[in-house]
Amino acid sequence: MNKQKTKNLAFMSLFIAIEILMVMIPFLGFIPVGPLRATTLHIPVIIAGIVLGKNKGAGIGLVFGLSSLIINTIQPTVTSFVFSPFLSGSIMSAFVAIIPRVLIGYVAGFIYEKLKMKNEIMAMTLGSFLGAMTNTILVLGGIYVIFGSQYASAIGKDFSVLFPYLIGIITTNGIVEAIVGTIIAVMVSKILIKMN
């Protein structure tokens, strides 16, 4: 039992280090795409959720969320206020930055846990995809609901076209991000589960 705890602690430390490293290397963790930053930081969170369980996955998601809050505070773009309470003056920015990211690992781990006995690869695939989509939908949904008019103004759009604009991001970038993340997460998770 102690050996497993030590191994899990080592994996947690590794996932935290990977998240921090991805944040620090330009264009690796956060990739500028117009007024948004695409991300690859959800991938280690998904893997942690599958390999270590939903609660530890949520913990790695917290690292992602805090990283997002920090990077948007110290290296702001025109839309960074939605992720930084220091820029927006609203604690709801911390909600948008952190809660969806925590839920990535939790959702991925929960789905894997519930379905792995039926079909492990399907459980990994579904958990990975839905974990990634949880992030995309909750972040963009949070932006729309909480900061809609300010966000529309920041990107030079009328609020009336913001909803279709965000749906367009979900159905294009969001799905591509989720598919790529799923492929990588499933490949890596298979290896790490054998090691764990």
Describe the structure in your own words.
By secondary structure, the protein is mainly alpha-helical. The chain is 78% helix and 4% strand. It has seven helices and two strands, in the order H-E-E-H-H-H-H-H-H. The chain has a two-stranded antiparallel ribbon. A hairpin with a 2-residue loop joins strand 1 (30-33) and strand 2.
What's this, in brief?
By secondary structure, this protein is mostly helical. It is built from seven helices and two strands; from the N terminus they run αββαααααα. A two-stranded antiparallel sheet has the order 1-2.
Keyphrases for this structure?
196 residues, mainly alpha, two-stranded antiparallel sheet, globular
Task: Give the arrangement of secondary structure elements.
Blueprint: H1 2-24, E1 30-33, E2 36-39, H2 42-52, H3 54-74, H4 85-88, H5 92-115, H6 120-154, H7 162-195
Antiparallel strand pairs: 1-2
The biggest sheet, with number of strands, parallel, antiparallel or mixed sense and barrel status, is: 2 strands, antiparallel
* Oligomeric state of the chains in view: single chain
- SS summary, helix count: 7
| Radius of gyration from CA coordinates | 17 Å
What is the terminal-to-terminal distance? 12 Å
